[in-house]
């Protein structure tokens, strides 16, 4: 897939493509409408792969706190649900996630993922401490599952603007799912949050070009035809791994 | 979880439990009704884990045929859909699955999984050769995703009884998903098919007690409370693996 078919002798590897906002939308529409993937199915795949990326970036044995605590902040839409699934799998992997989910989605699709976490005894915070030190002391890292590429980043509203302000001040690492919340899909933000880890889902977005932290590509299921159509030039995933570090 | 809490000095490991038919039903009902798992989500988890089990039991490099062909036979209900998801992931893992799915489910849940395979250019057979040698020659193995524990095994109807008769004659290995098709959930069959590999999903069923082939437990997501309630005594899965060989 990655080889130029016209040059059998020099294996020229085409570079990985970084998607525009409209391409992200088109790919998702095609997956749902033409390939008949279900949202529940995709959210499960992405959340599971995100949890595995977290275990690679922050292995249990590497955590500095006594307890393997992780704060997962979930937004109101799909990115938030991916965060919920990620938290659930982290619990299975013996981390201790706590969820902050300030505005719950009215959709039963998202509510189901919430109940799964509640019934697994994952604690939900009723508010985020504004005292940054409390967050630094309590958790090893924060997972940012607040806003995904589906959200228009220009007008981030409350409570998310305050949350992002808090995240800009914390000292513990942030791992963002799909895109760093508050960033434009197509452009890195200079005054936004500054995640140490970015977990791009299915394909990286333009804002991740030049990302200097640890960058994972997670979620390995995209039909070959779509990879070709969008000229994604995805790297070869090792073995049966659902992710790769870029 | 596996340790008896009353004997802190001698770590007595309780044996893995093998489930009765009613326990299988109760666990599934509880997952769907109380924990609000979705069928689409569970089928994806189980199918993905099954595909990984196949790659462990039959690594690409171990296959004797020139092409990494696999025949996946899918039944009309949930077990069949798990087979469809397994086939899709095997394609992603660079196997060459072919699907035989003689009676397609009328439920859109199952149809969606079918479309995903069709759109990934996985070929569907229109009939199963009765000439056993043709199957032996064309495929490295057969994945039996025909009948699961949800089906009453006593009265296996056509076309499945003929298919099982064919499977009893083939020389290539069979890998069964959840239970070997045609077996009773609670008892091993002496005159049924004889799979080399059994991939028990979530917890093994009674019929798998004493199974002499390669036995995997796949699908790692069961909430701890349910593991405790049903005294499953699941083994510890290594790292982030979604399966373990028993």
TrEMBL record, chains A, B:
InterPro entries in the cross-refs: YjeF_N_dom, YjeF_N_dom_sf, YJEFN_prot_NAXE-like
Record GO cellular component, one term: mitochondrion
Query: Coiled-coil regions in this chain?
Result: none
The entry's protein name is ApoA-I-binding protein 2
Q: Where is the YjeF N-terminal domain positioned along the sequence? A: 24-234
| NCBIfam families in the cross-refs | yjeF_nterm
One example of the protein's molecular function in GO is: NAD(P)HX epimerase activity
The highest taxon in the source lineage is Eukaryota
- What parts of the sequence cross the membrane? none
């Amino acid at each position: 897939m990655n080889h130029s078919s016209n040059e059998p002798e020099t294996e020229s590897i085409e570079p990985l493509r970084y998607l525009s906002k409209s391409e992200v939308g088109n790919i998702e529409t095609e997956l749902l409408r033409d390939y008949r993937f279900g949202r529940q199915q995709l959210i499960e795949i992405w959340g599971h792969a995100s949890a595995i990326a977290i275990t690679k970036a922050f292995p249990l044995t590497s955590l500095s706190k006594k307890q393997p605590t992780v704060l997962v902040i979930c937004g109101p839409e799909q990115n938030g649900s991916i965060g919920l699934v990620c938290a659930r799998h982290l619990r299975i992997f013996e981390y201790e996630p706590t969820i902050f989910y300030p505005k719950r989605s009215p959709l039963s699709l998202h509510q189901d993922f919430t109940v799964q976490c509640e019934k697994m005894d994952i604690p939900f915070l009723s508010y985020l401490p504004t005292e940054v030190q409390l967050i630094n002391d309590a958790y090893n890292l924060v997972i940012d599952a607040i806003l995904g590429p589906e959200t228009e980043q220009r007008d981030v509203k409350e409570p998310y603007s305050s949350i992002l302000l808090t995240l800009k001040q914390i000292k513990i690492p942030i791992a963002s799912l799909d895109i760093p919340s508050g960033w434009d899909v197509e452009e890195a933000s200079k005054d936004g949050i500054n995640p140490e880890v970015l977990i791009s889902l299915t394909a990286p977005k333009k804002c991740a070009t030049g990302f200097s932290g640890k960058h994972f590509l997670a979620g390995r299921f995209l039909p070959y035809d779509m990879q070709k159509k969008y000229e994604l030039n995805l790297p070869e995933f090792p073995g049966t791994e659902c992710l790769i570090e870029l």
